[in-house]
From TrEMBL:
<protein>
    <recommendedName>
        <fullName>Amidohydrolase 3 domain-containing protein</fullName>
    </recommendedName>
</protein>
<dbReference type="InterPro" id="IPR033932">
    <property type="entry name" value="YtcJ-like"/>
</dbReference>
<dbReference type="GO" id="GO:0016810">
    <property type="term" value="F:hydrolase activity, acting on carbon-nitrogen (but not peptide) bonds"/>
</dbReference>
<feature type="domain" description="Amidohydrolase 3">
    <location>
        <begin position="65"/>
        <end position="557"/>
    </location>
</feature>
<dbReference type="InterPro" id="IPR013108">
    <property type="entry name" value="Amidohydro_3"/>
</dbReference>
<dbReference type="InterPro" id="IPR011059">
    <property type="entry name" value="Metal-dep_hydrolase_composite"/>
</dbReference>
<dbReference type="InterPro" id="IPR032466">
    <property type="entry name" value="Metal_Hydrolase"/>
</dbReference>
<dbReference type="Pfam" id="PF07969">
    <property type="entry name" value="Amidohydro_3"/>
</dbReference>
Length: 568
């Protein structure tokens, strides 16, 4: 039985003033901790000692919220994830637990059976990781044809950067042995026939050609995704890649009025102008909880898939553990490869700067980081009236960001958003792919701090769950699945890790005046944690449970399941 999260003394159903007391309040400001908070109409009015806050509250009616010794802190700000993909994931076969092709086949068959999907329909599966499959490679069409011979099947790798289609899907998409992959993509071909496996731009292009589920199904999926984020204490969430097909879905979502969390969307640059027209009222400011934050571009792939673009080659693949199936048409596969040309990267940067739209660049490998830094400097040289950092450009993932590159990151005003939980989930694979020295320097958070660089930490959901305490735990401990400590020197303090998912996240979104810390005038966006992370044993940080999540004064999640929104 779950202990009751917080005790609420309800004096008025429509009470808009709340006084939280009898717990620890982590403010993320000086002083770092307080005893009580007063909020009114979803905004923080006072914070401090219980006596001071009670005095500030005066005699007027208020709802007293007894924290029962638990800890209240600013709601977590998700600096990078994919809200729609999370919603999508709830409508897909989850292959996260698959350990061999047999599992992949079984899970897909069970899903089709359970959901009663007629033959000839599309079936989506996601979350497999070839590194964790016994076969050590990606499933191809022969495997997928066994799972669903009658359906059109597509299977996405956990990274979202690659995947495979079965024979019927390839046929429907018009892919054969002669199909040319788009720039920055790969279609695997063996003996003149496609194996079904694709990477990067090729994979992205073809998954977008598959039809979408019904609007009702999407709304239900959005509801589930929102609940998932709220259950981890997240109050601001990201749509990390809004492409043209997502336009109608977001219109649907906004129209339904179900959005409770704040959502910041980043536009696919190709569809940017059209989406800006469609969502004109949301550009740079929230309306109905959604705002357009800027643009998104991809510079490379993922290190665990060996498609992140590196300056030094990957270590050779071990005997018996094959890389991507089939032949590859990509240049120098040993270093991964770029997704965009230098000229395209620079022109995207120029466009973002001229439009004064924030730019998120996915860079995993150090060669991709280098391309971003080089082209950014070149672009700014053409824009003498622009100050570096004016659009707060973000480097998403920045996993292999080199120590020699940090000075330029700082100079250009770029915010790295590290995917630090990679150290836990794929750290053992990074050791094999990259060797000890490079693997230890993955996501160099401590070095970034030493350079005075403000950074954030993300989970890239649905790649992994939007569990922000896992991120914090990982940044503090840097422990792999096998229990290896990867990069002792890059560990950071709990306080610095918490900043990366609160106040720094707010800064990344240009919202530091409204969110990210507990101060009068800011929004009453809170998470209530079972234990104080500043006092917990560092190794237990990821076990700290979220008891409740509050968005602008309204409780939107309670661990004890006592409904939502009932506080007001
Ligand atoms: Zn990414
Ligand atoms: Zn992402």
């Amino acid at each position: 039985m779950i202990a009751q999260a917080v005790q609420m003394e309800r004096t008025d159903e429509r009470m808009s003033r709340m006084l939280y007391y009898n717990g620890t309040v982590i403010t993320m400001e000086e002083p770092f901790c307080a005893q009580a908070v007063l909020t009114e109409d979803g905004v923080i009015r006072a914070v401090g000692t219980f006596e001071d806050v009670r005095a500030a509250a005066g005699e007027g009616e208020k709802c007293l919220v007894d924290l029962q010794g638990h800890t209240l802190m600013p709601g977590f700000i998700d600096p990078h994830s994919h809200f729609t993909a999370c919603a999508n994931a709830t409508m897909q076969v989850d292959l996260g637990e698959a350990e061999c092709f047999e599992d992949v086949i079984r899970l897909i068959r069970e899903f089709i059976e359970r959901e009663n999907i007629p033959a000839g329909q599309w079936v989506r599966a996601s979350g497999f990781d070839h590194n964790r499959l016994k076969e050590g490679r990606h499933p191809d069409r022969t495997v997928l044809d066994q799972a669903a011979p009658e359906h059109l099947l597509m299977v996405s790798h956990q990274s979202g950067h690659m995947g495979a289609f079965n024979s019927r899907a390839l046929e429907a998409l018009g892919v054969d042995g002669h199909t040319q992959p788009p720039q920055g993509g790969m279609i695997a071909v063996k003996d003149g026939e496609p194996t079904g496996y694709m990477e990067e731009n090729a994979f992205l292009q073809y998954i977008q050609k598959a039809p979408m589920p019904s609007p009702e199904a999407f709304l239900e999926a959005y509801r589930k995704a929102q609940k998932l984020y709220a259950s981890y204490g997240v109050t601001t969430v990201q749509e990390g890649m809004m492409s043209a097909p997502l336009g109608p879905l977001y219109q649907l979502l906004l129209h339904s009025g179900i959005l409770e969390l704040d959502l910041v969307a980043y536009l696919d640059m190709e569809a940017g102008d059209e989406l800006k027209r469609q969502f004109a009222e949301h550009i740079g400011k929230y309306k109905d909880h959604m705002k357009i934050g800027g643009y998104k571009m991809f510079l490379d792939g993922s290190p665990q898939g060996r498609t992140a673009w590196l300056r030094e080659p990957y270590l050779p693949v071990e005997e018996g553990a094959a890389g991507p199936a089939g032949e590859t048409t990509a240049p120098s596969p040993d270093c991964g490869y770029p997704t965009l040309t230098d000229a395209a990267v620079k022109s995207n940067i120029l466009r973002a700067e001229r439009d004064q739209m924030q730019l998120l660049a996915h860079c995993n490998g150090d060669a991709a980081c280098e391309q971003y830094l080089r082209e950014y400097a070149a672009a700014l040289a053409e824009l003498p009236d622009h100050t570096p950092g004016d659009i707060r450009p973000v480097m998403i993932h920045a996993q292999l960001l080199g120590l020699d590159q940090l000075e330029r990151v700082k100079g250009l005003g770029i915010i790295p958003s590290f995917f630090l939980a990679h150290v836990y989930h794929w750290g053992d694979i990074h050791l094999k792919n990259l060797g000890q020295k490079r693997a230890e320097r993955i996501s160099p958070a401590h070095s970034a701090l030493e350079h005075g660089i403000r950074f954030t930490l993300h989970q890239d959901a649905p790649v992994i769950r939007p569990d922000m305490m896992e991120t914090v735990w990982c940044a503090v401990n840097r422990m792999t699945r096998n229990g290896v400590i990867l990069g002792t020197e890059e560990r950071i303090s709990v306080a610095d890790a918490l900043k990366a998912v609160t106040i720094n996240g707010a800064y990344q979104y240009f919202e530091e005046d409204k969110k990210g810390s507990i101060a009068p005038g800011k929004l009453a966006d809170f998470v209530i944690l079972e234990q104080n992370p500043l006092e917990a044993d560092p190794i237990d940080l990821r076990k700290i449970r979220v008891l409740a999540t509050i968005k602008e004064g309204t409780c939107i999640y309670r661990a004890d399941g006592q409904g939502t929104g009932e506080v007001r």
